[in-house]
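=== RUN LOG ===
request id: a7f3
mode: sequence -> structure
chains: 1
length: 420
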Amino acid sequence: MAYRYHENRRVYDNSSSDTESYESEERRKKKTCIKRSSNGAKPKTKPILVHRSSNEQSGSDEPTSVLKETYTRNKQRANFNNSAGLTRNCGQKNMAESPNKNGGKPRSGDKITLVVDDTRFSNIEVDAIRAHPNTMLGRMFTSTLETNFTRPNERGEYEVADGISANCFRAILEYYKSGTVRCPPSVSVQELREACDYLLIPFDAATVKCQNLRGLLHELSNEGAREQFGEFLEDLILPILVGSAHRGDREAHIVVLMEDDVVDWDDEYPPPMGEECSQVIYSTQMYRFFKYIENRDVAKQVLKERGLKKIRLGIEGYPTHKEKIKKRPGGRPEVIYNYVQRPFLHMSWEKEEARSRHVDFQCVKISKSITNLAAAAADTPIDPHIADQLDQGNVVHPQPVGRNDQPGPPEAEPEGQAPP
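=== RESULT ===
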């Protein structure tokens, strides 16, 4: 029968092996010595003091090996718990920083979340967006790693379409599902048009479905007017501007006439045209185009985008032929012409228009109380008595100057003669 020391006492051991007794004691002390923190931190271990007899110290090293193995296993378990706690706390952050192996680019079959106007649109299929690579969203999620500037935020969401309302973007998302955009009643057609232009979605009758036909047709007319005036500018207007520039002019005034208009001016009595020299374009199609004020607004915007200045568009009267001649008193003839209302365009490409019309005049420095320029220009001061008379509106005659350059006494006026 063997005995062992326990808390400075010698107790008897009824087990058949010293090893089993040692292992049971080690298992008990392991529970009391190892303390784990509640927040998953690394546990602190304390050294275990084992009281052994001289026989056990001189025996085999099996208890020592068991102690080392237990310590190593506890340390590995603590490291695992610590890493698991960090993973639970920072899992979302790690996913946002590196959502996949492609460096932030979603893979095929993934679903993403878009944030527009502080509103989240979740469960959006990436493949549906990539099916339209010509749109802005399609380019964002199909670009290569070198040109990919789309990065998720800390939650793994993508913030896009800055400046577009959530209702408008919800309607635009239908384009990636069905290929059409239905304008909701809470969104104006102009707002939807601007959003489609920003997101590079085609705005036409086949894509956009709207209950407000007037607003839809108005936006379609603006788009058509822009394209049509671009053709007029390149084919008809630009050659006239180039011709004016070759003559040294820096502005042009163009009148649009119909193709069947006849202009017959009398060479002896031409119509008064003022300072502007008008250029004429015979085009019935352009005449009909400028009948609408909306088309003129679109044309003015296009000319501003092309860098022209002092743009004026409107309707004015243009003389076509002579009707009759009237004789004014004194024998001067007066010619009466027939005028037709036709659209006109006026534009300028002058850079220094403010300096070209500036004229410098040499002004004489005078007093506000002096109206005689000859006296004001003289170097000699004016007599205060004369200045008072000038202020009162009286006419003052200059006094003759003597030989010694001193003013002489006033001459006596003959009696019975009125002063001049």
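=== NOTES ===
The mean pLDDT is 74.
The radius of gyration is 50 Å.
=== END ===
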